[in-house]
Amino acid sequence: MNQEELEYIRNSITNIADFPKPGIVFRDITSLIEDRRAFLLSVKLIADRYRDCGIDKIAAPEARGFIFSAAVAAQLNAGLVLIRKPGKLPRDFIEESYSLEYGQASVQCHTDSVAPGEKVLIIDDLIATGGTAMAAAKLIRRLGGVVEHAAFVINLPDCHGTDVLKEAGIESFSLISFEGD
After folding, report:
1. Choice among 4, 36, 91, 101 that is catalytic
2. Is 64 among the residues known to form the active site?
3. What's the pTM value of the predicted model, to 2 decimals?
4. What domains sit in the chain, N to C, each tagged with a CATH number?
C-alpha cells in the first residue's frame, strides 16, 4: 500500500456533518464505490493483505459489508457468509444480540453457512464500537468457524472498536482512519 492510493481512497469518501443526528460526521462510502478507481483499490488492498492466509470464507455484515466482502471473496476464491438483520434468512439460523448506543440490535446467519474449522475473515465498510463485528464473530465461532481477522475500509479509532476485537483475539486492519469521530 502506498500513501497516494490510501489518500485517494480517503478523498473519495464524502463526509456529511450532522447526519443522522447533530454532532455526528457520517462517512459516506457510496461516493467511494461510485468511483471505479477507489473501489477497485479498496478491494485489491484488502484482498492482497489476506491472499496467503488460507481464508475459506468471508463474513459480510449487512448491508455495506456485502459490497466489499463479495468483491474480496471473489479475489480470494472464498465463500461468502451473509450476516443479516432479523427476518431476512429463509433457512435455519442462529442469532446474536449486541448493544447499540440506544438499545439493542441483533444479527443472524444460516446454521450451515460455516463448517467447523473454516477460517473466516470478517469484512465491513466501517468499524466504530465493534458491536456488529463482534456479533458476527460470535456467530461464526458458535458454528465452529475460526475468526482471527477482520478488515474495514474505515476505522473510527476514538470509538475503540478495534480494542474490543483485540480483546477477543481478532486482529483488525483498516485502510484509513478518521480520528476525532
Report:
1. 101
2. yes
3. 0.96
4. 54-177 (3.40.50.2020)
